[in-house]
Records
---
Amino acid sequence: MKAEIITIGDEILLGQVVDTNSAWLGQQLFDLQIHVQQITSITDSEEHILQALTEASQRADVIICTGGLGPTRDDVTKATAAKFFQTELVHNEEVLEHVKQIFARFNRTMPDMNYGQASILANAEVLFNDWGTAPGMWVQQGEQVFIFLPGVPYEMKNLMQHRAIPKLKAFHSAEKLVLRYILTVGIGESHLAESIADIEDSFPSSAHLAYLPKIGMVRLRLTLNGKDLKELNRTADDLQQRLIDRIGSAVIATEDLSFEEVIVRDFVKHNCTLATAESCTGGNIARLITEVSGASEMFLGAIVSYANEVKVSQLGVSEETLKEHGAVSEETVIQMAKGAQERLHTSYAVATSGIAGPGGGTAEKPVGMIWVAVAGKNSVQTKLFQFHGDRLINIERATNQALLMLWNLYRQENQD
Amino acid sequence: MKAEIITIGDEILLGQVVDTNSAWLGQQLFDLQIHVQQITSITDSEEHILQALTEASQRADVIICTGGLGPTRDDVTKATAAKFFQTELVHNEEVLEHVKQIFARFNRTMPDMNYGQASILANAEVLFNDWGTAPGMWVQQGEQVFIFLPGVPYEMKNLMQHRAIPKLKAFHSAEKLVLRYILTVGIGESHLAESIADIEDSFPSSAHLAYLPKIGMVRLRLTLNGKDLKELNRTADDLQQRLIDRIGSAVIATEDLSFEEVIVRDFVKHNCTLATAESCTGGNIARLITEVSGASEMFLGAIVSYANEVKVSQLGVSEETLKEHGAVSEETVIQMAKGAQERLHTSYAVATSGIAGPGGGTAEKPVGMIWVAVAGKNSVQTKLFQFHGDRLINIERATNQALLMLWNLYRQENQD
């Protein structure tokens, strides 16, 4: 079954909001064997909405529209959808009561403007919204479904999970899709591709291999399409295993895991623990690790030592070192890593110190210069990086490189 | 001038990657007075790419295509674009030398597969890529431009900044767009809308007001379209001032700033400093603050105390408190905030402790139960939250609420 997502609102087009909704929807729909073929982000103008609805309705079985359902004037999705379906908006007393209750729950009276929220497409089934005031709508026309959801991520996700997905499960698709993943570290995309070229050549026409590169790593995604799920799974397992055998030790995961998930899982398995001592990354490494469910089994904590006084008082960096070599130096970053390891009693610690920018650079220590240290069971490793991005890119790259260095030292010290 | 963005690649549709490129491109193009009208994400199949290119070329002046330029077989953008333009791919020796140099810079030999990277659309001008191996391309046809860029964010951004934007600046548009922002805290979207309804009623037809709600705050975006930039700016300033006067103290910023940027700017202005003591948010508050350029002037550091031992050793939480009330308790979170404030010598500290999930919940302390404390100059404030999201949503909401509580206490104690 094919789906398209239409997101409505200028904020995405102006780049003020990153569209995280669509990625989340893509994952949820994939689990239902519904495959998103296109995501279209448009302005909240009637003309654009009509055009996008028309085009999507010619291609997809399920069309999910997010955004523009609020009570304010810039929200035109509902009125436009009525035009598209050649129907009208009708007042729904049950929805009005529900919206009033939502306001009552927060001890607020409902502003008059919200009466409009009780206007529902005449051909729609209401998806009651317990997480906000704009109701969702489900419009079924023969074998085609249109789902209208608010754009606020929290409301959209809850409405989808609790209202729309149970209804979508009633649909069924003959076309099956099977996926396999291989996460590799330390081998470039094209070298990897050359080393497995003959295996790729021998793929059946139903199989497709995608290369998803990220700093220092490449994720391979193997996709198989067909009708016989059992047969697809057998072929997928076979192809995946042939790739794994060929790629060898660069393979660090054979499931759809993030690098952080691999680190957490492996550290737990080997009873290793981790702390971070972060200056320029500002807690970003700790944040990524703790986003992984189960991180508390291996991650004990972090010292974000943004100020030099905190490097001294909380990590034991010596004042002489700071004076002589500066905060952005190999000496300091080693003391930071060791300080975190000793004070938090962990087997591993990773430390960063650098100039993320845009300010703070000098001729000797320019913006983007970042030291990383990893302290392990038996040794400390350091590396100097010179990035050329903006502040956020420099932070992201330093974070990725720190995790890669941590992983490499960990693997040296903990061979299976 | 109108633009459309086409992103090519299954990973966005499958939800494995969030499309951050488009938001970044939207911002950059807006600064050039080029307005993104649509973002289309499609699979990397020839049929979809041809359809998207055809549709976009009928509507937009500038079409930016990202993704599918790599050397591997799943990358079909170049060959498909050649079909679209009814031209061919030609070998470019200069590009080949450039790609070889990129490999040489990393002390690697170029795999044969990369010879294909030197194949360039016959009608294109090369955008040389110093940040990766896939060259970008610029195709100009009369008043219309097509820009092809790799999908890797780091490469895409650099190619855009250093190669494409200088060329785009040569274009000019008669239609001008002027924006104004108002960031408000603590007033709901519909209450806000009601309170300014008469001002909105009096808007000229060239003006448009958008409401962008987020947890606890609403951002207003005022857009004006027209030909006379001076006149547009005068009207925008006038309308913005009328809104600010009406909304009053709920206005916390009148520029396009994030909440974190407002906090950093205001703390610096009032010589206030901040530390965080984070358990369930895992460094996410520190990360958001330190993403703001200039944060080092007010942010001294964070203690991410994921393990109880770290709460005791690094923040001075008493073992009796942990035994008697547990880590997720008002008593603990107060001691965490005070501990960070005292040990890092800051005027403010914010602390979080809770159960982000999915594991770790009990009947008494269910998943989503999160305590937040803010320690200020004269007082400590606490609040208990019960969220119902998944792990990432709970972390995000706890982070937002912690920043809101910090802001409210800060404002009480530092009136201008």
---
Amino acid sequence: MADTWLPSLITATPQEGFELAITLSRRGVKYTQPDMDTLKQLRPEYANSADGLTAASQVIAINFQTVSAANNYWRG
Amino acid sequence: MADTWLPSLITATPQEGFELAITLSRRGVKYTQPDMDTLKQLRPEYANSADGLTAASQVIAINFQTVSAANNYWRG
Amino acid sequence: MADTWLPSLITATPQEGFELAITLSRRGVKYTQPDMDTLKQLRPEYANSADGLTAASQVIAINFQTVSAANNYWRG
Amino acid sequence: MADTWLPSLITATPQEGFELAITLSRRGVKYTQPDMDTLKQLRPEYANSADGLTAASQVIAINFQTVSAANNYWRG
Amino acid sequence: MADTWLPSLITATPQEGFELAITLSRRGVKYTQPDMDTLKQLRPEYANSADGLTAASQVIAINFQTVSAANNYWRG
Amino acid sequence: MADTWLPSLITATPQEGFELAITLSRRGVKYTQPDMDTLKQLRPEYANSADGLTAASQVIAINFQTVSAANNYWRG
């Protein structure tokens, strides 16, 4: 991927940090399966499955650990 | 999501921190599947499944690591 | 849950810390499924399953990381 | 469990630390299912399953993170 | 593997760090199954499966924690 | 296991650290199932399965976090 999508891990607020964690989680998927049509077809498989949603939330939680540490937990 | 739901990771007590970890875990699900009707339909799938509940507890545990570190473990 | 069940992450010994990690793991389940009858019915599903027990042990391990860090690993 | 099985996280060597991580992983199982006969019956279920062994190794890895940090990685 | 594929964990940018995390995740697979033909045959199994892609993204997230810490989160 | 297989977590390079992480992951399996014949029989079960390989890579990633921290990420 030639474009710049991750210039920094620093965000203004915890909420923006959480949203960056979601971006990281999705990028992990896209690097593994770059074909957008395949990804769209797979969406119902996890977005309508309790196990799939919990698994997605877990990856976000792991990435949020990284982003939170990078931002010193926005302690101010 | 335009509303502010995560202004800070700081909480007064460990218990409030644990409850924030639950909020983070649920938000990870809601960002992935924003449709509330679908989420309601899926609830019995994990809330009545031992594996589903253990998986939910694991996501909470990961988020609780983040919140606990943010609060210096409420060491006082 | 209105009652106070987590006043502190500090424990006198590593073993008490491990037991607190178990409490945290169970609370993660109870917050997700508060109905005690349902929880009792689900117990055989994981307590008699090798996969279920390993998964339970993993959640405890993650929470024990948090409690151990909070207590500076009881290095004393 | 009334007996003392975890007086300290400190070990003399990394290898003893790894073995303590195994003890922690097994204790997580035993606290969840204290009946030794049930545990013996379940053993073939994971010890003869590739997935079960990988899952067991993962719990050990998580506990080894804790024990290693407690010992400052035996940097000496 | 005799060749040098990991001379350093330091990268110029977070994005390069994320890509190194992907490399680490793939190397973990290749060390376990070095046969390239088998790996190619298995690719559709996870690249066309929602669960498989989420699992791949999780391994990347864990390795990205390591690379991010190594680089002090590129705080500058 | 009476022999010494883990005298130190310190390695000269990140790549040797990654290989030590693989050793740790395998030892976690061997402590749980010491019978070499059983382990050989199980090998095709995970080495020819996409899910099994991703799971193996995840355990390596967790152990690599430990080894990397022990070596201060080979920054020096």
